[in-house]
Design a protein that fits this description.
The structure is a homodimer.
Chain A: H1 13-23, E1 27-29, E2 36-38, H2 40-59, E3 63-64, E4 70-72, H3 73-76, H4 80-86, E5 91-96, E6 99-107, H5 112-122, E7 131-140, E8 154-164, H6 167-188, E9 194-197, E10 209-216, E11 222-230, H7 234-239, E12 242-244, E13 250-252, E14 254-261, H8 263-272, E15 289-293, H9 298-316, E16 322-324, H10 332-341, E17 346-350, H11 352-357, E18 359-364, E19 373-377, H12 381-406, E20 408-409, H13 414-423, E21 425-430, H14 434-444, E22 447-452, E23 461-462, E24 469-470, E25 472-477
Parallel strand pairs in A: 3-7, 15-16, 15-17, 20-21
Antiparallel strand pairs in A: 1-2, 4-6, 5-6, 7-8, 8-14, 9-10, 9-22, 10-11, 11-14, 12-13, 17-18, 18-19, 21-25, 22-25, 23-24
Helix pairs in contact in A: 2-6
Chain lengths: 480, 480
């Protein structure tokens, strides 16, 4: 497949996205509509995401656990907004072991309810708080329009669920995790996200306040890439999560939940990819460096391969993830294209002359052609490669940031507002009224993405859509 | 809960098992019958199992991926034995997004079918082989009688699925993984398993040959702790997994599958635990060392805590997993009991006098009372602790091996056979006839566990049950 051209992003972004995923072997369609198979290359990317987030969750005091896939239908009815939000999306098991069940079981779309039930059993006293638990799990939401990674019926995520003694602690936790997501996205995935508050109509079903990180894709659409919810006492009251406080009085807990999913892989693809295919950020790339040996005959091969293998060992000793492409039925040019398609950040070419000279040629994935090529001394390869990968990591972030900022507009009138939504995002004063938001959506297909945490100091303005007084500025954009 | 006594193993082994899991906070019952919640302490144990197995799978050339939870019902009907084996255990989704589905979806009980379907799309040529993929996943089997970890409706496992060009390679793979499981069980979990072939009636539904590792629990019952199946061309034919070979001819692949599940946690509990609670093997224990500071007042506390924290830092720097129990509302004796219940292999006590003397007291979990206590110099704590944990690891294995071997009998007549099954396992000649096996099961409730790979050289005998000629010896036992 690698020798067929991908569609150009500028011609058909959506088709580019779907094809690059399948050709790069990140994922494939499963036989059940809307479900996907995550292939080894895609799953290795997800495992690298997991490793980094696990470190951050642990550093902030969280532990992993595992809650059940099935939730009694009745649990969903205990929190009014939650059931309204999720009912249309539920997959329901009605038969087990050949007989019809007395109470249907829901395949979890998210786990607040069942975890709330367990917390009510585990939490007795203020000494048991806070409870800080995360799980890595699959969840199912019955989606009508699905897309690989972005919106699939089954998807994979982590969902954190915490319980606290005070409202302040719950808010602090919610923002702490928003910060974990922001740092991960920017520093590890090189995705320049904007953290902020969701509007009332965009918040999680059952939350008091939802925060998200929002990213701009290569077609300028917005993608919600992670969410952190302050659930107040809503679920604690629905599931009787109570504790005896230090004054010996019974209190309801304050809970939070937060998640980041395989959707984030879609964000990486659409933030960095180009017409040649994927570009993966070095800190997450399953293969950071591919070594392509170049030889014409067996005699050359016998000279080149040991040098290629030695180079690999040298790089792997520096904890780099390296692959030698030793397939002997394919031409180097074919291999170059294939590894470009698969987004490997750095390529090293090594031929008979390089073996003699002690140098090899490197090619950066993020800078096509000659400009991205450099001669690297084999003797000092590991230090050189570590540096070059860091340079690529930062260059990817800077490029994405420049692209994003070049497509954020600050409209002051309707004409500018509509043009902003056609060309990118609008950053504008907004009244925060749900009716106004609904009108914007109906008229422009754009939605409020988030009210950023950083706001112009002490200023106020008038709503970009309805002209009413506005306290805060918001990002408005068409979104995935 | 930790201050209430556990039931003694000798009085009620089954109740001991259930209580120790809940009190040690490994797992709890979920609201849905037969499902469990794996709590942070239990999940950390599972994550350590995953880490070790992942290393071994990678070293043998396997990659992780993720296949879908839902499988069309029709897929199960393509392999005759498979559908017969699994039909009674299926959980079925009939409704999604508020409407009835045209074709019901099965929640995977195992993934041979859907993976076979995908492999038929991915595999074209001999160059694509072998395909060596593993997934860590949850699966669902509708069980009537469930027990925490041992048999739950939803459980967690890894399932490897491989495709090969020849029958020999498939058999080699099947045995290679059996060896991975055996080594993991013995060296990492300190569980002395016996690898062998399952009888025809005990093999996996759809396999040509199944192998397993079998472990003896503390009540002498057997537990199947991991399985590796040679599927021949059964699934390749059912799902048309074909490739063009080097002679340009179309061939069916030869496939394997193999799994080890959270059931293995049950094996660890019942291999090593005692009347005081869990005993976790150091190489898997989430907490390898607990430091209990001992002080009477704030003045003593101010002297002891910095020393306890310094000791922890020292041990953690040697990659040990350490916890300081700094709860100030509990007595040291209560903490000792609690960490014994939770199976932490090594305890370190540090009080004001220890701070001065430069020594601390260590207590081995596997040797109760004074015999397990040793004075350890703080200055050399890390090297000392590493050694001591290795000693404990080996002692646990040796003890379990001695126990097992003391409860394996080689009966030569019916009376000895029945007595062997009451007191432990029988190791005896067997005719390998299914009708004979059924009779044994009906009369004794024991089943053939495995035909071990190591057999008496060149010998033959007569079947312990029916007296017919027998080629191989087998283990027969009552089992979980």
């Amino acid at each position: 497949m690698a020798d067929m051209k991908l569609p150009k992003q500028s011609e058909n972004y959506s088709e580019w996205y779907t094809q690059v995923i399948q050709r790069a072997e990140l994922a494939d369609y499963a036989p059940v509509r809307g479900c996907m198979v995550i292939r080894p290359y895609g799953w290795a990317l997800w495992e690298n995401i997991q490793k980094d987030l696990n470190k951050r969750f642990k550093a902030t005091g969280h532990e992993n656990a595992q809650f059940p896939l099935f939730i009694p239908m009745s649990f969903f009815e205990k929190e009014k907004e939650h059931v309204e939000g999720f009912s249309p999306e539920l997959a329901v098991v009605t038969h087990g072991g050949g007989t019809e069940l007395e109470e249907p079981l829901v395949v979890r779309p998210t786990s607040e309810t069942v975890i709330g039930y367990m917390y009510s059993k585990w939490i007795q006293s203020w000494r048991d708080l806070p409870v800080l638990i995360n799980q890595w799990a699959n969840v199912v939401r019955w989606e009508m329009r699905t897309r690989l990674f972005l919106r699939t019926m089954e998807f994979f995520w982590q969902e954190g669920h915490t319980a606290h003694a005070t409202a302040e602690e719950a808010e602090e936790e919610t923002l702490k995790i928003l910060d974990v997501y922001t740092t991960f996205a920017r520093e590890i995935a090189a995705v320049p996200v904007i953290p902020g508050l969701k509007s009332n109509s965009e918040k999680f079903a059952g939350a008091v306040r939802s925060y998200s990180i929002e990213a701009m894709m290569g077609d300028t659409k917005a993608l919600q890439a992670g969410t952190s919810h302050n659930l107040g006492q809503n679920f604690a009251k629905a599931f009787e999560i109570q504790f005896v406080d230090q004054n010996n009085e019974m209190q309801h807990c304050w809970t939070t939940s937060w998640g980041l999913s395989t959707r984030f892989i879609g964000a990486i693809i659409m933030t960095h990819g180009d017409d040649q295919g994927l570009i993966l950020p070095p800190r997450l790339a399953p293969v950071q460096i591919v070594i392509v040996p170049i030889f014409k005959d067996d005699e050359e091969k016998a000279r080149v391969m040991p040098a290629a293998d030695a180079l690999r060992d040298n790089l792997e000793a520096a904890d780099l993830r390296v692959k030698v492409d030793d397939r002997d039925n394919l031409r180097p040019g074919f291999k170059f294209n294939e590894w470009e398609l698969r987004g490997v950040p750095l390529r090293i070419e090594i031929g008979p002359r390089d073996v003699e000279s002690g140098n090899v040629m490197t090619a950066r994935r993020d800078i096509p052609g000659r400009d991205g090529k450099q001669v690297m001394p084999q003797a000092n390869a590991a230090a050189w490669a570590v540096d070059l990968l860091e340079t690529i990591q930062h260059a990817l972030y800077q490029r994405a940031l420049n692209f994003r900022d070049a497509h954020i507009y600050q409209p002051t009138n309707r004409e500018e507002f509509l043009k902003a939504l056609d060309d990118g995002w609008a950053y504008a004063w907004w009244c925060e009224d749900t009716a106004c938001e609904t009108e914007i959506k109906e008229q422009t297909k754009a939605t409020t993405r988030c009210i950023p945490l950083d706001q112009p100091d002490g200023e106020t303005g008038t709503c970009i859509h309805c002209g009413k007084p506005a306290r805060r500025k918001v990002y408005i954009a068409r979104a995935y």
